[in-house]
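Handoff note, outgoing to incoming analyst
You'll be picking up this chain. Sequence as last confirmed:
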Amino acid sequence: MELHLSNEILIYENSVENIDILIQKINEDLENNKLFFSHLIINGKDAYSDFEDKLMEQINTIEKIELVTKTINEFINDLTVSLNEYSIRAIPSIKQLTEQFYQSPTEESWGMLQDLLEGLNWVYSTIKSMCNMELDEYKENLLIIANHLEVELPNLLDAMESNDFILIGDIISYEILPQFEAIVSITEKTFQFINK
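Most recent structure output, in case you need it:
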């Protein structure tokens, strides 16, 4: 089987033992060329996740594996689009959730709150991964948001633990919702800059 990396093609025997070597070569290529992993193309089919399992399953029939990468700027742009789209979708749900906790939260409200916590975790880790690279004004503004979320998340968890519905509503309304609105504003300004 052929492994197509950024600047070279390597040939390996189709064996399970070579999968770890393939993955190691892919990681070395990414690191040496300062690129980010996008996905693999295995025998012409895109594999965005569980690619190790897919390699194992198809090991006897694999002819060609292509590494698809992104530059730092492409990676940041993709994350920016994802942050923007997620935040735009989340804002109406966050407003609805706030109202539910100010009234009387239902089982559905608690489920939505759990979804919000998972979303906050994704937003926080996405911003942090972007900000691990060279900082500019855009990333510094996002980092302020991540730092604010880092402070408010324990407060929200404390309010949840004590079943203080009003405090939960206040934290969501006054601390979390404005961060999502700020993400939309910051990312859309970035899009205007990119599209000039």
